[in-house]
Amino acid sequence: MPVAAPGPDRGGLRSTYVTRSASRITLCAPAQPQSVGHLRKRASMIFSAWMLNTDETQAAELVISELLTNAVEHGHDKMTLGVARTGSALEITVADHGQAARSTSLGDPDEHGRGLAIVAAIAQDLSIDKTAGGWRTLARIALQSPMSDSAA
Fold this sequence. Notes:
By secondary structure, the chain is α+β, with helices and mostly antiparallel strands. It contains 3 helices and 6 strands.
């Protein structure tokens, strides 16, 4: 399965592979706004290798953006993105490795606070768990695309 090598993108960000296999990838990056697009782009390359259709890819990219944005907003230091192809579902996991630093009440409520509602509308399953090091969010998206031979 072709995957992007770890390393900086044009913005100079560096992501680190924690795990990588034919049907699962885990990446860590700084919990910074620039990391959201960087990690989304790396995941999108994987979706292409897994032969997800356009709708599935766009849904997954939106879920990844919303969950990583929450991790940037509420976490510290670093964040981890995990993506796994499990038969007819795509599992997207984001962990924010830190205690919430800012209140969700900051800013205009019309512009903030809708991310998890968007994810819940797209995902067939959504769970949010407090961990010893921060928060872990798991979203499952149903897939119609058959699993490629290289990802089986």
